[in-house]
Amino acid sequence: MSVTQVAAYAAPAAKAPLERTTVPRRPVGEHDVLIDIKYAGICHSDIHQARDGWGEGIFPMVPGHEIAGVVAEVGPGVTRYAVGDRVGVGCFVDSCRACEYCRRGQEQYCVKGMTPTYNGRDKEGEPTYGGYSTHVVVDENYAVRIPEGLALDIAAPLLCAGITLYSPLKHWEAGPGKKVAIVGLGGLGHMGVKIAAALGAEVTVLSQSLRKKEDGLKLGASHYYATNDETTFEKLAGTFDLIVSTVSAPLPLDAYLSLLKVDGAFVNVGAPEEPVSLNLFSVIAGRKTLAGSSIGGIPETQEMLDFCAEHGLGAEIELIDAGQINEAYERVLSSDVRYRFVIDTATI
């Protein structure tokens, strides 16, 4: 395959509606795989970036870092995959490969910066284009195998939403005997509930209202509280070993930190566009940790997919045609999806 143009949906400029277009894909190199994309999840971060919410983007922008598909071609040096294999691509497609974090399999923390799947530049300085397209070419070392037990459509969101929750839950040792709260029951939060419950933790959902309580309990939560009820923070003071916040709006951190036990951790995986404030006594008083976590490396992403297949965990999705992407963005912003939009790329 030489450089070719593939069909895609792109934002031509910041805040502009996405529209059908074509973008270039590089030739299949020595260690590359060409992936026929079957499904691409819509992540809230796609919206942030397409609308310059996290800083100036590279346009035209083809979002999408929740990619599930089938290998259509392999380079002559490829050893990990063969044509026909089911594979996924997450939030990055390259890294320096030499720093301590890359060598550790924590490429997401690459000292020189990982190459994002979209809205980034590769080592040749060319822009990267994401999964809202029919095909993508990636180095075999930055693709992961999707186990046969997972349908590709419900597996796609695991490449961001799944690993974004699995990584901190594993790192902070969610499991039997641990009380874990997930803040927000959306695209990220619903996977947090499923994974934390499968790990054996006692799971509580903290959501603005009780509107999704029935869903939360079905997904694996043991308890569900509304944060718009002021008594919630009084009732749950000092309850949790770990709280993972998936929301992308600023929270009253002091109130949430009061819910932790001594040595508890509050971990942010949602990324608000605005700064947040904090009274440091909220962490000093209970030797508490305020932390963040960013996706996961390639080995951990594979571990997460295998774990989800073993436990029968996939995302709760609404499958859409590509022509519905702009509508889906608005619905994500109004929390009108249960719980992840996935694009059928055959409609591109």
TrEMBL record:
Domain Enoyl reductase (ER): start-end pairs: 16-343
Its EC number(s): 1.1.1.2
Alphabetized CDD domains for the sequence: CAD1 (cd05283)
Cofactor: Zn(2+)
Pfam assignment, any one: ADH_zinc_N
Highest taxon listed in the record's lineage: Bacteria
Gene Ontology MF terms in the entry: alcohol dehydrogenase (NADP+) activity; zinc ion binding
Keywords: Metal-binding, Oxidoreductase, Zinc
InterPro entries assigned to the protein according to its UniProt record, in alphabetical order: ADH-like_C, ADH-like_N, ADH_Zn_CS, CAD-like, ER, GroES-like_sf, NAD(P)-bd_dom_sf
Keyword Zinc: yes
Keyword flag Metal-binding: yes
Gene3D superfamilies: Medium-chain alcohol dehydrogenases, catalytic domain, NAD(P)-binding Rossmann-like Domain
Catalytic activities: a primary alcohol + NADP(+) = an aldehyde + NADPH + H(+)
Listed PANTHER family: ALDEHYDE REDUCTASE (PTHR42683)
Membership in a protein family: Belongs to the zinc-containing alcohol dehydrogenase family.
Protein name: alcohol dehydrogenase (NADP(+))
